[in-house]
Write a structure and sequence with these properties.
By secondary structure, the chain is an alpha+beta fold. Helix content is 23%, strand content 8%. The protein has helices spanning 58-67, 105-114, 122-129, 138-149, 192-195, 199-202, 218-227, and strands spanning 24-27, 30-32, 44-46, 49-52, 178-179, 239-240, 244-246.
């Protein structure tokens, strides 16, 4: 997984905040073929759900920390977040209109729960990100690959709304940050962590799935490969999240 060595941000700057930054987009039910699906397996079915239009911002996460001090940098345990947690992120005051990064899976999950939401599942996220293969269109694919190849020291501040927009109106799924999903460890080839219900000690992946449904889809391969390197307490300078919600 690529790690971005950005300098610590110590001075707050102002960026235009996308309107309705907390809006959610309704995703209709459907089916698609995940990258890690074996040839003899049926397509994954997705039930109708909602997903945040943008990734969670630093301003939103700062408000969460104020109401939930147990998740502040000085109080969180290393089981729930490594030493990079919230390092180099401007939170007092926060940068407006900037994606929140350097949060662990546990912290992202707690934020979503506090909002009455949850993290999207891997298949939900991929379903939106690859809808009708819009990400594979030449112009989009070229932009995504360029983002993958961009040197760490030249990565810009992740401003919301500057990544690609999906056909359903979801922003920044590609070209801005990596994002946590609820079952990020479901691509493991070992099988052990899938069966183990102790998520606090076993939220990690084995190697990337070796039976990709389309090995020509390099961008999907990169995402599945990135997830395979994660642990639940990991924090990254370019790793953030967004929330999802059931539709009853």
């Amino acid at each position: 997984m690529r790690r971005i060595a950005l300098p610590t941000i110590v001075v707050a700057a102002f960026f235009a905040v996308p309107l309705f930054a907390e809006d959610m987009v309704t995703i209709p039910s459907g089916s698609f073929r995940p990258f890690d699906l074996a040839k003899d397996q049926k397509n994954a079915k997705i039930r109708r759900f909602q997903i945040d239009k943008y990734p969670v911002s630093t301003a939103d996460f700062a408000a969460f920390l104020e109401k939930n001090p147990a998740w502040q940098k000085e109080k969180i345990s290393r089981i729930r977040a490594d030493k990079g947690y919230l390092q180099g992120v401007a939170l007092n005051p926060p940068l407006q209109g900037v994606a929140m990064t350097q949060v662990s899976w546990y912290a992202a999950r707690a934020y979503c729960r506090a909002k009455g939401k949850r993290l999207p599942t891997l298949n939900e996220w991929e379903y939106v990100a690859t809808y009708n293969k819009w990400d594979a269109l030449p112009a989009n694919n070229e932009r995504i690959l360029k983002w993958f190849a961009q040197p760490n020291d030249t990565m810009p501040v992740p401003r919301l709304g500057t990544g690609l927009k999906s056909p359903q109106g979801v922003y920044d799924l590609h070209g801005l940050i990596w994002e946590w999903v609820e079952d990020f460890n479901s691509s493991t080839v070992t099988g052990d962590s899938r069966a183990d219900t102790d998520t606090n000690s076993n939220m990690f992946c084995g190697a990337t799935a070796l039976t990709g449904s389309d090995l020509r889809n390099y961008t999907a391969y990169m995402r599945y490969g990135m997830r395979s390197s994660l642990k639940g307490n990991y924090t990254g300078l370019n790793l953030g999240f967004r929330c999802a919600k059931e539709i009853k």
